[in-house]
Amino acid sequence: MNVEVSATQAAATLRVKSKLENGVIRPPTNLELIVSDHCNISCRQCNHASPVMRKWNATAEDAERDLQCLTGIYRAKYLRLIGGEPVLNPHLADIIRVAAKADVAEKLILVTNGILLDRLSDDVFAMLDEVEVSHYPNVGLKDAAIEAIRLRGARLGTGVRVAKYPEFRYSFSSQLLRDEQLVEKIWRGCRIANIWGCHAVYKGKIYRCPQSIYASGVRQNACDSKDGLALNQGADFQQILLDFLNSSSPLDACRNCMGTNGKKFSHEIVIRKGWSGDLDQPPEEMIDYELLETSLAGMSEIDDCRVVIREGKWSRSRFATRLRRIKTRFASR
Ligand code: SF4
Ligand code: SF4
Fold first, then answer.
1. Does residue 296 fall inside a structural domain?
2. Which residue's CA is the nearest one to ligand 2's atom 5?
3. What is the pLDDT of residue 269?
4. Residue 270 lies in a domain
5. More confident site: 300 or 55
6. What separation in Å is there between the alpha carbon of 292 and the centre of ligand 2?
């Protein structure tokens, strides 16, 4: 299939770039810190490929080394600790302590499927600005458990957001997309790359999107992404980082990834052994072409697979707890 990118389409897709403000890189929104690769459930087309990733946990030393390279030169709105399932990481409490002090974002958020959240102590839960529970159908997380997480958040001064994902979109194909113009179109129409600006830190490197860590892995069954930039503390690193983040060409991973324009299907839990088989289709058959055209004409920020069901409200006691936490954080610097 040969699809041309017209000049009008390219211009219509207004890309939100990272900007240098007061000497600091301000990305569009998120920085994700990947703290584990594996997960306790196995969602079809998981866009972090967790069902087939080997067990891996970041350590607090890994997090400190990587975040230090960004401290003072890069500051996101949100630092999201994510996996896989981050609560599986036995070092998570120490990673949260490191992340809370790193000063690379305004808010610290833990993103979890919520099933194992009881493993987190109150002390550690209270260090987070927010817990975001990704709620998938048929994984056994009952309404009562969600309410208990909300009440715990209210008690500890931590916001709790619950987002339901009744539907997913195709993320990855194990086959390479060889049509360069279609690759360009997928990248230009990808909300992750162009609107959400979701950067990711993983094993000493920073990536323009988390999918680019994993897309090459689904191609060759080994994670050897070419899309990362090695983090370092060199004097010229900030300019190198800014140029990298705002690069105006598709990633190598875009050849195996549909971004936000894959066809939609109802969320499914699948057996791990069968997870990769679902990826063995040509990417051309996984793309929602109508959505891709709409995205190229102008993208909205809304993730149409995600339904936020109710956000935790800021109570007076939560505000007081939050204020105390900020003071403690600054006092410990
Ligand atoms: S909960 Fe599902 S989508 Fe999230 S990391 Fe685990 S397998 Fe992937
Ligand atoms: S790899 Fe490309 S298409 Fe996939 S999320 Fe990243 S930028 Fe978007």
1. no
2. 259
3. 95
4. no
5. 55
6. 13
